[in-house]
Amino acid sequence: MEQTMAVAAVLALLSGTLWWLRRRALPGVALPAKRGGRRLELLERLALAPQQVLYLVRFDDHALLLASSPTGCSLIERVPTEGIGDRLIRAGEDDR
């Protein structure tokens, strides 16, 4: 019983120390996602058919248009995030 309590105390101390180090954001201990925020974000999803889908994904400072089908996934286009608004406006003008 004493050994079990000792092991539990050591694990609690280790997890508490790790939590404290991560909160302090010491180099090599902090998780990259915590410091810089999320690097990957799903902006939009459009189902074209039951097994064919278009995804608009933001990765860092780029937007990726991906196509997914039963045969695989492919990159359609990659643009800087700043250019998304300009391309949407031009696409809207073409539709008129």
Identify the notable features of this structure and list them briefly:
96 residues, alpha+beta, four-stranded antiparallel sheet, elongated
Question: Secondary-structure blueprint of this entry?
Answer:
Layout (H helix, E strand, L loop, with lengths): L1 H23 L7 H5 L3 E10 L2 E8 L2 E8 L2 E9 L2 H12 L2
Antiparallel strand pairs: 1-2, 2-3, 3-4
How would you describe the overall organization of this protein?
It contains three helices and four strands; from the N terminus they run ααββββα. It is α+β, with helices and mostly antiparallel strands and 96 residues long. The protein has a four-stranded antiparallel sheet, with no helix packed on it. A hairpin with a 2-residue loop joins strand 3 and strand 4 (72-80). The protein starts with a helix and ends with a helix. The mean pLDDT is 78.
Distance between the termini: 78 Å
Query: Class by helix and strand content?
Result: alpha+beta
Strand residues, percent: 35-45%
Number of strands: 4
Question: In this structure, how is the largest beta sheet organized?
Answer: 4 strands, antiparallel
Instruction: Tell me the overall shape.
Output: elongated
Helix content: 40-55%
What is the averaged pLDDT score?
78
